[in-house]
């Protein structure tokens, strides 16, 4: 008897299941789905310029229109002024893309360059009292903050108590791209043991950082930042600037019982950077053969040209 | 058994009917269609004002910012601000997220106000003026649009501009109205309106907010409200625009605006019921001086210096001041630098002030400092103390004059020069009150002691100066 009930039960259930979910209607596609394909804008001259200079040749998107989900939902930050987008992106094109392209070719840029540039008008204030000027995310997106400080008519503008924006932005770009390269092939282990890192770099003065064998206070944060600061600052501020810093650093650094001078620490790091770029990426930091200018020379020449033309 | 069968049959019935695919829409249109309709509606509304819009933002930091803006159908907007009249073009977008939203999505005057760097628009670092450049559409009412900021929840109102408003806004009227208001109110030291019972409220009309203060139950009440000078009915001097504020309560009435009276060149506060109160310069604060002046109060001394207070002396004390100076001059070419009149309770002082005749500490003390300058330009202080008694009418009497350092030549050598000041203090009774500042170019708050007559009324004779704390 029980068995009969089970059979009946199963039969009734199957009836329900089979009959309940028949759907012969086709999906109604007569109306377009709202917002599909993203926001729609009338293309401006700036949009066309970005398309010609970045999107078509390098598959790079330059996002300057405000999208809070692209940046940060919890900080007070403001969008960039349109007239500043082109001069900033020209700087990036001429003094970052072109030198790498010249050494490594177009495919290198296409393959490794971050695909999204996000420009923001103001800096981002952090809870530890610092402000953020640039960010890189997974080698895909670079965010440049504080672009509204750019004054196209005055590139020695120090009204805000900070140095010129040109090297600042450029340093950020080169710094973040070094992170990208490091994410693909990590810098050598030996780089990490040269000097001790700080727990709070914001409390380290420039001179104190130098005397501990760092190229900048931020470099004392971690080996990754140290490496990116080394590459970006040598490229943007120049070899002469770096050598002067090395000469000024004569303090002794102690690490794990070893004692070296801050000068030696900086020189050792420089050597590791040169070797890493050459061995891993076939990039010459400094000119090795006359027919192939080094990245440093390419960046410095391009920067000078850029500055002369504004 | 029957029960089970019965339940099974019911169950089968439910299963068979549960997946009925007939769909009844709550709304007539699909959600996509309705979203598009919202975008179209707000786009058409913004484009539909032929003279553009006046936008008024009430920021989180307590100020009002005003803009004129004109939208075009290619995502472009042109605007002028009350802090910058140069027309600026930027981008905008109407989006529908959870609600329909107006986004000024590239840098503009709106985002300048939001900038977290105080160097741009003031405010605090990291927050700026606590304003917005992305707004939700909240409501529409008689052509006006109410907006609410996405990030800081600021309130903003878009109002269609009249042809006259657009015309003057294009000439920079928003900025001019603000500047002219500032220079008009800047000329008044203590602007007040007076209530029916004689009570006064001080109202400083600011270009972004008004501040007010009045006395309630003996203590000072202060506050601020959103406020701004409008550009309606502008003339060449742009000052006869109405000043709007948010609900100022005074004298049992609610004031929402100040109208410019062109013939009398002043603002008149107008209540919701149409009562009109003149805003005039009271010249002195609305509260008694002793609310802020006295031992352990905001101010505890006044500084009497002829050079910095020309025009604000009484005739009597000016003569005494000059007499001291003349006599100091006769004493080895010294001169009078200034006098300080300070009130304190004896236990505040590290030096115990003792009554010379009784040998007991004096409880409340007037300290008068005579700063004289010697022939080489070095300053010295000579100081005397008086005990204080205050009667029920608030009249001060100073007694038991005591020299601070009887053994010092500072005081002994110059003592004779101060005799007229000693007499003035010893032989009169005084009332504490404000002193009208008549010194050109000075807006300092002045207070002092007025000599009272036999019936206790203040006379024109007073010693007064700039209020300070030491």
**Spatial order of strands in the largest sheet of chain B:** 4-3-2-1-9-8-7-6-5
Query: Whole-number radius of gyration of chain B?
Result: 34 Å
CATH architectural name of the largest domain in chain A: 3-Layer(aba) Sandwich
Amount of helix of chain A: 40-55%
Number of domains of chain B: 3
Q: Helix and strand layout, with pairings?
A:
The complex is a heterodimer of chains A (310) and B (470).
Chain A: H1 2-20, H2 45-58, E1 61-63, H3 85-104, H4 106-112, E2 116-119, E3 124-125, E4 131-132, E5 134-137, E6 141-144, H5 165-184, H6 206-211, H7 223-237, H8 239-248, E7 252-255, E8 258-261, H9 262-281, H10 295-308
Parallel strand pairs in A: 1-2, 2-6
Antiparallel strand pairs in A: 3-4, 5-6, 7-8
Helix pairs in contact in A: 3-4, 3-5, 3-10, 5-7, 7-8, 7-10, 8-9
Chain B: H1 2-18, H2 31-47, E1 53-58, E2 64-72, E3 76-81, E4 84-91, E5 93-96, E6 100-103, H3 109-114, H4 118-121, E7 134-141, E8 144-149, E9 155-160, H5 163-170, H6 173-186, E10 191-194, E11 200-205, E12 209-216, E13 219-229, E14 243-250, E15 253-261, E16 266-271, E17 276-278, E18 280-281, E19 301-304, H7 315-330, E20 335-345, E21 364-373, E22 379-390, E23 395-403, H8 409-414, H9 419-427, E24 429-435, E25 446-452, E26 458-468
Antiparallel strand pairs in B: 1-2, 1-9, 2-3, 3-4, 5-6, 6-7, 7-8, 8-9, 10-11, 10-18, 11-12, 12-13, 13-14, 14-15, 15-16, 16-17, 19-20, 19-26, 20-21, 21-22, 22-23, 23-24, 24-25, 25-26
């Amino acid at each position: 008897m029980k068995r009969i009930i089970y059979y009946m039960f199963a039969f009734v259930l199957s009836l329900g299941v089979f009959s309940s979910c028949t759907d012969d209607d086709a999906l109604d596609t007569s109306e377009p789905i709202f917002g599909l394909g993203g926001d729609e804008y009338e293309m401006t001259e700036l949009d066309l310029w970005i398309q010609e200079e970045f999107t078509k040749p390098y598959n790079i998107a330059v996002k300057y229109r405000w999208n809070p989900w692209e940046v940060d939902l919890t900080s007070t930050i403001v969008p960039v002024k349109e007239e500043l987008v082109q001069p900033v992106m020209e700087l990036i094109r001429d003094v970052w893309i072109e030198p790498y392209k010249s050494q490594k070719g177009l495919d290198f840029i296409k393959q490794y360059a971050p695909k999204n540039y996000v420009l923001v008008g103001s800096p981002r204030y952090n809870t530890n009292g610092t402000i953020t000027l640039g960010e890189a995310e997974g080698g895909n997106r670079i965010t440049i903050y504080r672009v509204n400080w750019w004054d196209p008519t005055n590139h020695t503008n120090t009204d805000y108590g900070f140095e010129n924006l040109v090297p600042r932005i450029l340093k950020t770009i080169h710094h973040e791209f070094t992170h990208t390269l490091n994410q693909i092939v990590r810098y050598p282990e030996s780089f990490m043991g040269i000097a001790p890192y700080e727990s709070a770099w914001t409390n380290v003065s420039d001179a104190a950082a130098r005397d501990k064998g760092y190229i900048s206070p931020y470099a004392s944060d971690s080996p990754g930042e140290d490496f990116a600061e080394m590459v970006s600052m040598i490229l943007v501020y120049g070899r002469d600037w770096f050598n002067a810093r090395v000469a000024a650093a004569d303090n002794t650094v102690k690490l794990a019982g070893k004692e070296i001078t801050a000068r030696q620490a900086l020189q050792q790091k420089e050597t590791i950077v040169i070797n890493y770029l050459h061995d891993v990426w076939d990039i010459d930091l400094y000119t090795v053969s006359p027919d192939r200018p080094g990245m440093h020379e390419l960046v410095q020449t391009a920067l000078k040209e850029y500055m002369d033309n504004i | 058994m029957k029960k089970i069968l019965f339940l099974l049959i019911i169950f089968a019935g439910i299963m068979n009917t549960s997946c009925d695919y007939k769909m009844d829409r709550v709304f007539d249109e699909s959600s996509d269609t309705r979203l598009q309709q919202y975008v179209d509606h707000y786009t058409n509304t913004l484009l539909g004002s032929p003279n553009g819009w006046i936008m008024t933002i009430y920021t989180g930091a307590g100020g009002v910012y005003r803009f004129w803006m004109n939208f075009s159908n290619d995502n472009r907007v042109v605007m002028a601000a009350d802090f910058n009249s140069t027309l600026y073009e930027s981008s905008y977008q109407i989006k529908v997220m959870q609600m329909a939203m107006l986004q000024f999505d590239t840098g503009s005057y709106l985002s300048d106000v939001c900038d977290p760097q105080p160097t741009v628009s003031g405010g605090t670092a990291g927050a700026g003026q606590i304003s917005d450049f992305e707004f939700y559409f909240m409501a529409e009412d008689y052509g006006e649009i109410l907006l609410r900021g996405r990030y800081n929840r600021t309130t903003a109102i878009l109002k269609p501009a009249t042809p006259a408003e657009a015309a003057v806004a294009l000439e920079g009227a928003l900025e001019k109205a603000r500047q002219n208001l500032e220079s008009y109110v800047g000329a008044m030291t203590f602007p007040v309106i007076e209530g029916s019972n004689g009570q006064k409220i001080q109202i400083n009309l600011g270009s972004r907010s008004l501040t007010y203060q009045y006395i309630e139950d003996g203590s000072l009440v202060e506050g601020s409200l959103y406020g701004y000078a409008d550009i309606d009915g502008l003339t060449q001097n742009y000052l006869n625009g109405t000043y709007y504020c948010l609900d100022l309560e005074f004298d049992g009435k609610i004031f929402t605006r100040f109208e410019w009276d062109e013939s009398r060149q002043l603002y008149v506060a107008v209540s919701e019921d149409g009562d009109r109160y003149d805003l005039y310069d009271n010249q002195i604060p609305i509260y008694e001086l002793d609310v802020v002046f006295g031992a352990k109060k905001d101010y505890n001394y006044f500084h009497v210096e002829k050079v910095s207070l020309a025009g604000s002396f009484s005739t009597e004390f000016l003569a005494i001041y000059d007499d001291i100076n003349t006599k100091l001059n006769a004493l080895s070419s010294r001169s009078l630098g200034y006098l300080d009149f300070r009130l304190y309770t004896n236990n505040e002082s590290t030096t115990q002030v003792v009554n010379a005749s009784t040998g007991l500490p004096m409880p409340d003390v007037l300290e008068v400092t005579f700063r004289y300058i010697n022939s080489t330009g070095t300053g010295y202080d000579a100081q005397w103390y008086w005990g204080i008694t205050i009667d029920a009418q608030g009249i001060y009497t100073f007694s038991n004059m005591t020299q601070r350092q009887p053994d010092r030549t500072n005081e002994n050598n110059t003592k004779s020069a101060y005799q007229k000041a000693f007499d003035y203090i010893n032989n009169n009774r005084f009332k504490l009150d404000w002193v009208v500042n008549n010194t050109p170019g000075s807006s300092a708050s002045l207070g002092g002691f007025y000599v009272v007559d036999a019936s206790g009324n203040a006379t024109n004779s007073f010693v007064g100066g700039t209020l300070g704390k030491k």
